């Protein structure tokens, strides 16, 4: 039987288990990436593993999230990361060099390789034919130490692309269409593999936009073939030797095939407050726009920037619009400057932001109260922009540029009526390349002293799982609670290396009293429990969404369903992820109910897959199930991965 691309890469990397769909396998990781907001904790955990040097083919530590540097915290983290990289054989990408996913695609991604990154948008690498997966920092630390990465051997869904995009319709509209079809939930354990004739019409940056935002569907990753177009991209990066062809076999078997006709697509938007709320631009046009932000790891490539620059050439931003542009990397910035794109942007009135996450993670450029903000980024969760009542719409660079000119949501196809021609921008044959902002590690870094400023804390420790969980329901939340709801990023992200402080912001957007309550419950000797609806833990890979609850004494989360990375993070920090056997039982529980889960250790150590929970307040009982591998169970019993490894 023929193989899919996913199977080809995974089967050559399996070190543990057998490739059976739905079963756990361990795979060898060739490359890792970290970013600073998840990286400090990942490297503190790596240090605790006492391995003298990383064992991967390549590990890169990027600084792109916390680059605002108000106060000493960010800069402390950067210095710590720089010294750790030099000591342990890791390439260090300095602040200013760009957003990890964009830079990794440009300089390091290799078709056929596996990449594990402590950021949920690591699947961007799928645009170049990698199996690139987002994970918690601890899993990345284990991979750097040479350990396997465990995942459920996935189902493969083929997204069969037919036809060719019409002018003014972009790769962003393709992934927004995918989100409309698949939504943000129910796709755990699947990989999207793109194929069909339409693939040949998409450049690598287009493909990377699509694989990047596959993360919003909750799939393990997304992947494109590695073909002549991939080769051209690598050649333009001076890396054609890194190219290998990677196509599915003609008789490859997929679990499902979904057709998307590119020729029939039109400009779309993800409307507030979920990347899954898709509407046609035609249906929302005319809405006044206060802010337009172009950039983020989804749409900040050379072609994205040059497209916008070309639409805006010799024009001026609408007076009611605040217009921000953040090129994705120093390479993009240098190349658009050389090719005059930057002068068009500046003269149109763009505010140029650093090549970093910036507005996308809400640590700068928060819009005004109640604003409508059009962004080319990938997430529009409530409050993520830093302004709680702002309405963020996710759109293509073309649609964003149209609003810059008109001040209202505008179908970019209508720009033709104003005499603006569709700019078909192509990639240069050869990019201007300058790798000066990478610091390569010395051959022997053993004498390097690690710099620990006052912002660098210790990873908090956990105790083994108790025999009986005696808890109070600290919070009951609804469906689609994202990690942005659990623990905010933005300006609070500077406390990532200081877990006690960062924990004070748990569930801030949903219920600012959470921390106080959790502390009270913990101090009273009870455990904390979180009750949740469908698709709990969507979004980012931030392990602080598990680590901080662990620190506050949360022992279990009971949800209707849970997302992959967050579930893995809960396990890694010794919190047991449970699901309602009967989803209706969710309704019978309230905040402050006292729950008891007796003999949970014994149940985990045995063959059981479900356990009874007593609701002592309501005098009722209900059943919860746990889907855990033998290894997961051992980790939870030990009180988390670090205890287990030791
Ligand atoms: C995000 O886009 O939400 C982030 C910030 O990049 C996160 C990582 C983090 O929280 O540090 C992600 O995507 O994993
Ligand atoms: Fe950075 Fe935004 Fe991409 Fe996350 S989604 S890595 S915050 S640019």
What is this structure's SSE topology?
Layout: H1 5-11, E1 14-16, E2 24-27, E3 31-35, H2 36-48, E4 58-62, H3 73-88, E5 91-93, H4 100-107, E6 114-117, E7 131-134, H5 137-144, E8 149-152, E9 155-162, H6 171-182, E10 190-195, H7 204-214, E11 221-223, H8 228-236, E12 256-261, E13 268-270, E14 278-280, H9 281-284, E15 291-294, H10 302-312, E16 322-325, H11 330-338, H12 341-348, E17 351-352, E18 372-375, E19 391-394, H13 397-406, E20 438-439, E21 469-476, H14 483-486, H15 499-502, H16 514-523, E22 527-532, H17 544-551, E23 554-559, H18 564-572, E24 576-580, E25 594-597, H19 600-605, E26 610-615, E27 620-625, H20 630-638, H21 641-645
Parallel strand pairs: 3-4, 3-6, 4-5, 6-7, 9-10, 9-12, 10-11, 15-16, 15-18, 16-17, 18-19, 21-22, 22-23, 23-24
Antiparallel strand pairs: 1-2, 2-8, 5-20, 13-14, 21-25, 24-27, 25-26, 26-27
The structure holds alpha-methylisocitric acid and iron/sulfur cluster.
């Amino acid at each position: 039987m023929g193989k899919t691309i996913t199977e080809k890469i995974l089967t050559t990397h399996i070190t543990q288990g057998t490739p059976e769909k739905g079963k756990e396998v361990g795979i060898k990781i060739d490359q890792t990436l970290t970013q600073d907001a998840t990286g400090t904790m990942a490297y503190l955990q790596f240090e605790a593993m006492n391995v003298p040097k990383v064992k991967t083919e390549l590990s890169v530590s990027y600084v792109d999230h916390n680059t605002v540097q108000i106060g000493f915290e960010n800069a402390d983290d950067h210095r710590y990361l720089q010294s750790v990289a030099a000591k342990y054989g890791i390439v260090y990408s300095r602040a200013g060099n760009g957003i990890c996913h964009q830079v990794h695609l440009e300089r390091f991604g290799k078709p056929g390789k596996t990449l594990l990154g402590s950021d949920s948008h690591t699947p961007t690498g799928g645009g170049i034919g990698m199996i690139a997966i987002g994970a918690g920092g601890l899993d990345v630390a284990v991979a750097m130490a040479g350990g396997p990465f465990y995942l459920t051997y996935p189902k493969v869904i083929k997204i069969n692309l037919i036809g060719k995009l019409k002018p003014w319709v972009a790769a962003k509209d393709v992934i927004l269409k995918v989100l409309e079809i698949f939504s943000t939930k129910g796709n755990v354990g699947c990989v999207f593999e793109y194929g069909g004739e339409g693939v040949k019409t998409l450049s690598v940056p287009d493909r990377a936009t699509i694989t990047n935002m596959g993360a919003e569907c909750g799939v393990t990753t997304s992947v494109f073939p590695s073909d002549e177009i991939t080769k051209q991209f690598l050649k333009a990066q001076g890396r054609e030797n890194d190219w290998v062809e990677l196509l599915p076999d003609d008789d490859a078997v997929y679990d499902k095939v979904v057709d998307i006709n590119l020729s029939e697509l039109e400009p779309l938007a993800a409307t507030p407050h979920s990347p899954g709320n898709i509407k046609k631009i035609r249906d929302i046009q005319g809405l006044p726009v206060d802010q337009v932000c172009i950039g983020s790891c989804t749409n900040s490539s050379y072609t994205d920037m040059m497209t916008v620059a070309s639409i805006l050439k010799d024009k001026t931003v609408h007076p009611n619009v605040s217009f921000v542009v953040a090129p994705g990397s120093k390479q993009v910035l240098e190349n658009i400057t050389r090719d005059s794109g930057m002068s068009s942007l500046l003269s149109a009135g763009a505010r140029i932001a650093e090549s970093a996450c910036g507005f996308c993670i809400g640590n700068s450029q928060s819009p005004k109260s109640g604003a409508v903000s059009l962004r080319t980024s990938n997430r529009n969760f409530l409050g993520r922009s830093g302004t709680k009542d702002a309405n963020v719409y996710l759109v293509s660079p073309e649609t964003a540029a149209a609003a810059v000119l008109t001040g209202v949501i505008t179908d970019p196809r209508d720009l033709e009526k104003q005499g603006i021609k569709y700019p078909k921008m192509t990639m240069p044959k050869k990019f201007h390349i300058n790798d000066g902002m990478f610091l390569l590690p010395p051959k022997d870094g053993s004498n390097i002293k690690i710099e620990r400023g006052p912002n660098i804390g210790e990873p908090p420790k956990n105790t083994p799982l108790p025999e009986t969980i005696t808890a109070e329901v600290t919070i009951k939340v609804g469906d689609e609670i994202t990690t942005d709801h659990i623990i905010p990023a933005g300006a609070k992200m500077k406390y990532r290396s200081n877990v006690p402080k960062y924990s004070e912001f748990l569930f801030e957007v949903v219920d600012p009293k959470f921390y106080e309550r959790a502390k009270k419950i913990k101090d009273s000797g009870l455990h904390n429990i979180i009750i949740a609806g469908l698709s709990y833990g969507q979004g980012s890979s931030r392990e602080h969404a598990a680590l901080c609850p662990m620190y506050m004494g949360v022992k279990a989360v009971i949800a209707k369903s849970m997302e992959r990375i967050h579930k893995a993070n809960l396990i890694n920090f010794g919190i047991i992820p449970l699901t309602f056997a009967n989803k209706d039982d969710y309704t019978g529980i309230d905040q402050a109910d006292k729950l008891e889960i007796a003999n949970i250790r014994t149940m985990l150590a045995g063959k059981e897959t479900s356990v009874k929970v007593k609701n002592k307040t309501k005098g009722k009982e209900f059943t919860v199930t746990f889907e855990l591998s033998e290894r997961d169970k051992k980790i939870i019993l030990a009180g988390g991965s670090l205890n287990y490894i030791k």
